[in-house]
């Protein structure tokens, strides 16, 4: 599970790093992809991928963590009480 | 009726709505710091999403980011990218801040630092840096709102009157309502300026030729359709405004305020849509399409931070008043959280911790309210200094850059158990010293002041931590064991089975 987590987080930051390619002249021509300038279309494509990753992280990690943490605090409150 | 009169009437109605919300919210207030500053750790999903978004987005978005897109075009599209990173930061940092905050009843970032590193000095450093970093950020909300009023009314409402109006709005609302009122009014203001921003975007796109809007710019402004390079320039802003989403004290405390981790989880999946796809992209469309000939009369590079008020002063003054109210909403929704946060740092981390330990809870809340008023006054005074009236994004980035230097030390309790007290203190000193020196004297390297400070601070944190040892690691172990158990319970079992096989104890230096 930790490996998958590291992989997803790694993939997310690779995609984020790739949004800077136009700063180095890559995907930075005065061309259009649909109605968007090329470099903007590139950034938005990577943003879309990263948005999907956020959802995967939510279902795989964030939601289960939330359930565990909530349970932990419920148990604490029922028992000795929260510090 | 003059534009100024219409604008003032709209603002009075707007203030009345905000006061109603704040008054309603304050009925539930209890005289405790946790209630006044953190809404008693009870914020739900909608309020949490709106208050984190509204506290982060401000006049720098509705005015500054639009101006930056006008001046720099797609180069500033990095804003849309780092706004998606915010969602991941809620998971990577926000959830840990919430968990530790809930477990140990922390109110400020300094609470966590002192307990973890056993260092009152670190609490002090976090408080001072936090307050100093919040000042430029609060400042642009006041100056931005005042400039918007001035532009819309064609100088009928002078800058100084705008500053006073903004100051009065903010001071009254925050003093009355505290954290809960701020969060509730943030929700109203967030919806308000979000809706207005979408409306303006639709108006700009349709007036610029719809789907052909960007294509048409090839003839008039081809430069803004390609990225101008300057990687280190945008990296400086992206680092500050990206990490600022969790390291700025007012944002950090938002994470403490969530009712449950599920609220944060839900906030994380709404954030890309709200922060990036809506806010950042709207700013991009409006800023870039403002180059369409004749769309915004009288627009120059110097006035590019005032595109929206300029546009409406020419075409629809009445709606323009509503739009300026939205700009002011964006400013107030940020400055209220920032004011509350700086008050909590001053009261909790300085006054109560070091001067008046036996002060009552009610007295603490009273001091906090007095601090809010004092800070409002201070910001108003600073806003009359000419240097404070520059472009909004660079001033905001300065505030974020100052607080960015706290990141290495914050990684200790959140991730890196090997980090030591000396490493944390040294990293902040080196980071801030580097930022100051490069800001004042420049650097032979292309890296900006905040980026240089962060790199050197990180390096210092690692080196000094590896070279030193904290005397008592009990609390540190407790923090990281708890985090490991709740984040990756299966890894505890794996570690245990490896230990049993005789490989030896498994270190838990990082909890990634």
Automatic annotation (TrEMBL), chain A:
It comes from the Bacteria. The chain crosses the membrane at residues 41-61. Keywords: Membrane, Transmembrane, Transmembrane helix. This is DUF485 domain-containing protein.
Automatic annotation (TrEMBL), chain B:
It is found in: Cell membrane. This is Solute:Na+ symporter, SSS family. It comes from Bhargavaea ginsengi. GO terms for cellular component: plasma membrane. It is a multi-pass membrane protein. The lineage of its organism: Bacteria, Bacillati, Bacillota, Bacilli, Bacillales. It comes from the Bacteria. One of its GO terms (biological process) is sodium ion transport. Keywords: Cell membrane, Ion transport, Membrane, Sodium, Sodium transport, Symport, Transmembrane, Transmembrane helix, Transport. The chain crosses the membrane at residues 6-25, 46-67, 73-93, 122-142, 157-176, 188-209, 229-248, 269-290, 318-346, 366-385, 391-411, 423-441, 447-467.
